[in-house]
Design brief:
By secondary structure, the chain is mainly α. Helices cover 69% and strands 0% of the residues. The chain has 40 helices and no strands. Helix 13 packs antiparallel against helix 14 and helix 28 packs antiparallel against helix 29. The longest helix has 23 residues. The radius of gyration is 32 Å and the shape is globular. It starts with 5 loop residues before the first helix and ends in an 11-residue tail after the last helix.
C-alpha cells in the first residue's frame, strides 16, 4: 500500500517523499480524507500604483476597471492576498470574538476550522499558535488537525519540524497498526515510539493500553521513555495532577525521572493555570540528583505565571533562567511581553522586546501579532501603532514576507484606529500598507467600510471603499456587502439597502441571513412594515429561515407604524411555530410595551402572563419597565408597585425608566408619601439614580424642600444633577423616555 499510494508518487523534493506516505497512511488509518500537501506561500509584490488607486478620480477608476491582468502587472498593481489567507483571518477574528463576548473557550470545531484555514493559507506559525491555544483551552486537537500542521510545515520548507510532528503526533495510528500486524514480536523501542506519539497527542488511555500490551504480551519492562510518554499524555490532556503523580510512581519500577519528566508536568500545570503547582514541581526538580532544569522547563514556568496574569513572577522566572546561564527562547520572552501588555504595562512589554534583541533573539511574527491583538482589544491605538512600526523595522521578526508588517498586523491596527474614531490615520495607514508591499484583504476593507464616519455620508463612502477593493482585484465577500448594508441602515436609508441587496446578487455573492436581517432592520427603523415583510418573503423564497432577531425586527416595524394589534397577531403566529423559531423575552417586550403605551394594559398584562406562566420566559428589566409605565400612566399605581416589588425580588435593579413613571404616577395620585419613599430608594442606592427626568418628577411630587431633605438624607445634595433640579422650575429640564 505504501508504494502504491498516490501520496507517495506526488513528490516535490526528497523531504516530502519521506513524509507523504506516512502522513497518507496515518490519515487513512484514522478514517480521514487524504491530505494534499500545500503549495509554498507566495509573498505579496511591492506596489506603487495601488496607493493612489484608493482615492483616484472617477475617470481613473473607470480606466482601472478596464485593465487586463497583463496591464495590471505592467502598472505594478500587486497580486492580492490569497483567498485562503483572508478566510483564515476571518475565522481567527470569529474565534477571538467568541472568547471576548462569551468569556469561554471556543468549541473544538471552530478551532479546527481556523487551523485548516491557516494551513491552507501556508500560515505555519499561526497554525502552531492555534494548536497551543487550543490545548491551553483543554480542547483535544484531532488527528486531522495535526496532519494539517505537518503538511503545512513540509510545504513551507521545514522538513525537520514536519518530521518531528509526524513522528510524535500523526504517527500513533500507524505505529499501533504496525504493532498489531507485525509478524515478529515488536521491540520495546517500537512500543515506545507508539506511546510517544500518543503522549504528544494527549491520549493517556491509549498510552496506558499500549503500556499494558507491552508488559503483558511483549514481555518488555517499561523504561524511562515509556513513563515520559505517559506523563506527557496526562499533561497534554489537561490532567497535570496525574502527570505529577507518575513522576513518583515510576520510581516503584526502579526508574528515576529525568528533566523531560518534570518539564512535561510543569507545562501541564501551566496550561491548567496553576502556577503554584508548576513552581512546586520545578522546586522538586532542582532538588533531584543529577538533574538540571533546562530552558524548556524554565519557559514552561514562565508561561505558567504569565497565563495566570502574574507577570512580575513570570519576569522573575525569566530572569532566573538567564541567571542560570540559559538562553531564553522567543516563546519565553513573548509570554512575559504579552503578560505585561494584558495588564496595560506597554512600556514594560517594550522593554522585554528590547531585552530580546539585546540577547540576540529576534521577535517573530506571532510575538508581534499577540502583542498587537492585546493592544487592539484594549483600544490602545498609539501603542499598537508603535508596535507595528517596530515590526516593520525588524523586517517581520524573521516571520514571513511582504516586508516588515503582515496583513493581519495592519488589520489589527487599522481596526483599532477606526474604533477610536481616528479614520484619517487608519486611511493613511492603509496607504502605507500599500507602499510597503503588504497586500490588503477583504478584512482590511471591511473594517474601513463598517466604520465610515458620518451617518449621512457613510453609505457613499462605504461604496467607494467597495469600489477600491474591486480596483485591486479583490472580490468583496458577503461580510463586505453586509457592512455596506449596515451603513445604509444606520443612515435610515432602507431603499438604498434594498438596492445593495440586488447589487450583491448581481456580483455573484448570495445574501445571507445577516444581509436580509440588516435590510429589514432598516425598514423597521423607518416604520415601513410592509416593505420589511416583502424582504422577509424574498429571503424565505431563497430557502433562508428567519431567526428570532429578524422576527423581532419585524415586530418592531409594526409597532413603530402604530400597528400594535398586528404585532400581537404576528406574535401569536410566532408562538405557534408558523414562522420558525420561538419568541424570546424581547419579542414579548416589544408587543406588551406597545399595547401598554396605547393604554391597553389588560392585553399587555395578559401577554406578560403568557410569557411567564405558559412559555416559562423570565422577564427582564425592559419588560417590567414597559408594563410599569403602562399601569402608572393609566392610574393603576397599585399594580405598577406590585410589578416594582416583583422585579426587585427577582434580583433586578430598577433604573430611571422604572422610577420615572412611578414618580409621575404618584404625583398624579397625590401620593406624596409613596413618592418620598421611592425617592429615598432611588437616591439611597449605589450608585444613585440621578437622571433629570426622575429628579424633576420627584420635585413635582414632594416639592423643592422635600427633594432637598431626601437628597440630604441620602448624601447626594452636592451632586450637579441635584443642584440643577433644585435650581430650576419643576417643568424645566424634564424629559420622558
Amino acid at each position: 500500500f505504501f508504494l502504491a499510494s498516490p501520496a507517495c508518487l506526488q513528490t516535490d523534493n526528497m523531504h516530502t517523499h519521506v513524509l507523504r506516505p506516512a502522513c497518507a497512511f496515518a490519515l487513512l488509518a484514522a478514517s480521514v480524507e487524504p491530505l494534499q500537501l500545500l503549495p509554498p506561500r507566495q509573498p505579496p509584490r511591492t506596489c506603487r500604483a495601488a496607493v493612489s488607486s484608493v482615492v483616484c478620480t472617477a475617470a481613473e477608476r473607470s480606466l482601472a476597471r478596464d485593465l487586463s491582468e497583463e496591464q495590471r502587472a505592467a502598472a505594478g498593481v500587486p497580486k492580492v492576498a490569497p483567498s485562503a489567507a483572508e478566510h483564515a483571518q476571518v475565522l481567527l477574528a470569529d474565534l477571538i470574538a467568541v472568547e471576548e463576548l462569551s468569556g469561554a473557550a471556543p468549541d473544538t470545531e471552530l478551532f479546527e476550522r481556523a487551523i485548516r484555514a491557516h494551513a491552507e493559507a501556508g500560515l505555519v506559525e499561526e497554525c502552531l499558535s492555534l494548536l497551543r491555544r487550543m490545548r491551553r483551552a483543554r480542547k483535544t486537537p484531532s488527528l486531522e488537525s495535526y496532519a494539517l500542521v505537518v503538511s503545512a510545515l513540509s510545504a513551507a520548507g521545514r522538513p525537520r519540524e514536519a518530521a518531528r510532528w509526524l513522528r510524535r503526533v500523526v504517527e500513533p495510528s500507524v505505529s499501533q497498526l504496525l504493532l498489531r500486524r507485525s509478524k515478529a514480536p515488536p521491540r520495546r523501542s517500537e512500543y515506545n515510539r507508539a506511546m510517544a506519539a500518543y503522549g504528544a497527542a494527549g491520549l493517556p488511555h491509549e498510552v496506558m493500553e499500549t503500556l499494558r500490551t507491552m508488559v503483558g504480551e511483549g514481555e518488555h519492562r517499561p523504561d524511562l521513555r515509556s513513563f515520559n510518554a505517559l506523563i506527557a499524555a496526562h499533561a497534554n490532556a489537561g490532567q497535570p495532577d496525574r502527570a505529577a503523580a507518575w513522576i513518583h510512581r515510576m520510581r516503584g519500577w526502579g526508574i528515576e525521572p529525568d528533566a523531560c519528566s518534570y518539564t512535561s508536568a510543569i507545562a501541564g500545570f501551566a496550561r491548567a493555570g496553576e502556577p503554584e503547582r508548576a513552581a512546586a514541581v520545578m522546586a522538586e526538580m532542582r532538588l533531584a540528583p543529577n538533574i538540571t532544569a533546562d530552558i524548556r522547563a524554565h519557559s514552561a514556568l514562565v508561561e505558567a505565571f504569565a497565563v495566570a496574569g502574574r507577570v512580575a513572577e513570570a519576569a522573575g522566572a525569566l530572569q532566573a533562567a538567564r541567571d542560570a546561564g540559559l538562553a531564553p527562547t522567543v516563546v519565553t520572552y513573548a509570554s512575559v511581553a504579552k503578560g505585561h501588555a494584558m495588564r496595560g504595562e506597554y512600556e514594560a512589554a517594550s522593554g522585554v522586546l528590547d531585552q530580546m534583541e539585546a540577547d540576540g533573539v529576534a521577535p517573530n511574527v506571532p510575538t508581534f501579532h499577540a502583542l498587537l491583538s492585546v493592544c487592539a482589544r484594549a483600544g490602545e491605538a498609539d501603542e499598537a501603532l508603535a508596535l507595528l512600526r517596530r515590526m516593520e523595522a525588524a523586517g517581520g521578526g524573521g516571520g514571513g514576507g511582504g516586508g516588515g508588517g503582515s496583513t493581519l498586523a495592519y488589520n489589527l491596527v487599522i481596526g483599532c484606529l477606526l474604533r477610536r474614531d481616528r479614520a484619517a490615520e487608519a486611511e493613511a495607514l492603509l496607504h502605507s500598507m500599500h507602499a510597503a508591499g503588504v497586500a490588503p484583504d477583504t478584512v482590511t476593507f471591511s473594517s474601513m467600510i463598517s466604520l465610515s464616519p458620518g451617518a449621512s455620508t457613510a453609505p457613499a463612502r462605504a461604496a467607494e471603499w467597495l469600489g477600491a477593493m474591486k480596483q485591486l482585484g479583490l472580490q468583496p465577500d458577503a461580510q463586505c456587502f453586509n457592512k455596506v448594508l449596515a451603513c445604509c441602515a444606520r443612515a435610515r436609508l432602507p431603499e438604498l439597502a434594498d438596492e445593495w441587496l440586488d447589487k450583491m446578487e448581481a456580483a455573484g455573492v448570495p445574501p445571507n441571513l445577516v444581509s436580509y436581517s440588516t435590510t429589514i432592520a432598516a425598514y423597521a427603523k423607518t416604520a415601513q412594515p410592509d416593505e420589511a415583510a416583502a424582504v422577509l418573503r424574498r429571503m424565505t423564497a431563497r430557502g433562508i429561515a428567519p431567526d428570532t432577531i429578524l422576527l423581532n425586527q419585524l415586530l418592531e416595524s409594526l409597532v413603530r407604524a402604530s400597528r400594535p394589534a398586528q404585532a400581537a397577531a404576528l406574535l401569536s403566529r410566532f408562538r405557534r411555530g408558523e414562522l420558525g423559531p420561538p419568541p424570546d423575552c424581547c419579542s414579548y417586550t416589544i408587543v406588551l410595551s406597545a399595547l401598554a403605551r396605547e393604554g391597553d394594559v389588560a392585553r399587555a398584562a395578559s401577554w406578560f402572563r403568557t410569557m411567564t406562566a405558559e412559555d416559562g420566559i423570565a422577564p427582564d428589566l425592559m419588560c417590567y419597565n414597559g408594563l410599569i409605565r403602562g399601569f402608572a400612566g393609566q392610574g393603576e399605581l397599585d399594580e405598577a408597585m406590585r410589578l416594582y416589588d416583583r422585579l426587585r425580588r427577582e434580583g433586578l435593579s430598577p433604573d430611571e425608566w422604572t422610577y420615572g413613571p412611578l414618580l409621575d404616577g404618584a404625583r398624579a395620585a397625590r401620593a406624596s408619601r409613596l413618592a418620598r419613599s421611592l425617592g429615598a430608594q432611588m437616591l439611597g442606592r449605589s450608585p444613585p439614580v440621578l437622571s433629570s427626568f426622575c429628579l424633576v418628577a420627584l420635585r413635582r411630587s414632594i416639592g423643592a424642600s422635600g427633594l432637598r431633605a431626601v437628597c440630604r438624607e441620602c448624601g447626594v445634595l452636592d451632586q450637579p444633577a441635584v443642584r440643577q433640579a433644585l435650581g430650576k422650575a419643576p417643568l424645566q429640564g424634564a424629559r420622558r423616555g
